[in-house]
Design a protein that fits this description.
Distance between the termini: 36 Å
Structural class: alpha/beta
Strand order of the largest sheet: 3-4-2-5-1-6-7-8
Helix content: 25-40%
Radius of gyration: 17 Å
CATH superfamily: P-loop containing nucleotide triphosphate hydrolases
CATH class: Alpha Beta
Oligomer: single chain
Shape: globular
Order of helices and strands: HHEHEHHEEHHEHEHEEH
Number of domains: 1
Length: about 240
C-alpha cells in the first residue's frame, strides 16, 4: 500500500489542488515534449522532495500523462515505500551491471505511473550517478514516457544532485518554508547555477494557509527565491 499519496487518497484536499496547480504550471512551461525530464531535489534533508515527486507524478497521471518516477536517491531511497514496491533490484543494479533498465521498472497501483526504484544502496552512489551509463539512461527514458521525474539527494548534502542536474531538462527545488533561511536557499540556487541547470522553479513546503499545510509554487530566478522565502514566512499571502 502507498504511504503518502495524498493526491490519490484525498483528491479534493487543498494539498491535492496545489499539486494540480503545480502540474499545470510545469506543463505550461514545458512546451517541447522532448524536454520532459525533470529533476526534483531539495536544499537539505526532510524538506519533502520525495513526497513532492510521488504526488506530482500521480497528479500528472490523473491528467492523462504516462509518467516514470526514477528514484535516483541511491543513499536514502524512498519512492518504493511511497508506492508500496519491492526495492531489491533497481537503478543501482542497472548502473553497476549495465543491464536493460526496463527490466527493473515496476507498475504501480496508479494508472499511468511507473517507478524505477533505486535498488540496493551502493558504496559509490556519486560515481554511479555521474557514470556514462546514467547519462545514457537519462537520455533513453525521456523517449518512452510523457514525463520523467527524478528524485535525488539534497544538493547541499552531497554532489549527486548537481551532477544529475547537468543531464536533465529541468530542475525543481523543494524548500521547507519553516526551516529555511535566505542564505541557505541562495547557496542551493548557486550550486545549480554553477552547473548551468535549467531552474524551472521552487516548491515551498509546510506553509500554513487556512489551518492546513499547503504547497506554494513559483517560477523564480535567484532574487525571486529570496522573495519567496520572505513571503512564505509571512504565510504566502
Amino acid at each position: 500500500m502507498a504511504l503518502s499519496l495524498i493526491t490519490l487518497d484525498e483528491t479534493s484536499s487543498q494539498i491535492s489542488e496545489a499539486y494540480r496547480t503545480l502540474r499545470t504550471n510545469v506543463q505550461f512551461n514545458i512546451v517541447d515534449s522532448e524536454n520532459n525530464r525533470i529533476m526534483i531535489t531539495s536544499a537539505g534533508r526532510r524538506e519533502g522532495k520525495s513526497f513532492t515527486v510521488a504526488n506530482l507524478a500521480v497528479s500528472m497521471a490523473q491528467d492523462g500523462k504516462f509518467v516514470l518516477v526514477v528514484d535516483a536517491d541511491l543513499r536514502n531511497p524512498t519512492q518504493h515505500k511511497l508506492f508500496g514496491l519491492d526495492n531489491s533490484e533497481g537503478l543501482s543494479i542497472d548502473l553497476v551491471h549495465a543491464q536493460d533498465y526496463r527490466q527493473y521498472i515496476q507498475f504501480t497501483t496508479v494508472p499511468g505511473v511507473m517507478v524505477l526504484p533505486a535498488g540496493p544502496v551502493p558504496s559509490n552512489p556519486a560515481e554511479l550517478i555521474g557514470s556514462e551509463r546514467m547519462k545514457y539512461l537519462v537520455k533513453e527514458v525521456g523517449q518512452h514516457f510523457d514525463m520523467v521525474l527524478f528524485d535525488t539527494p539534497p544538493i547541499l548534502a552531497v554532489a549527486d544532485g548537481t551532477v544529475l542536474a547537468q543531464e536533465v531538462d529541468w530542475v525543481i527545488l523543494v524548500l521547507d518554508s519553516v526551516e529555511e533561511n535566505k542564505s541557505y536557499i541562495q547557496h542551493a540556487k548557486d550550486l545549480l547555477d554553477k552547473v548551468d541547470a535549467k531552474f524551472l522553479g521552487a516548491v515551498l513546503n509546510k506553509v500554513e494557509m487556512k489551518g492546513s499545510n499547503y504547497y506554494y509554487y513559483n517560477y523564480s530566478d535567484s532574487d525571486e527565491v529570496e522573495e519567496m522565502q520572505h513571503r512564505c514566512k509571512a504565510g504566502c499571502k
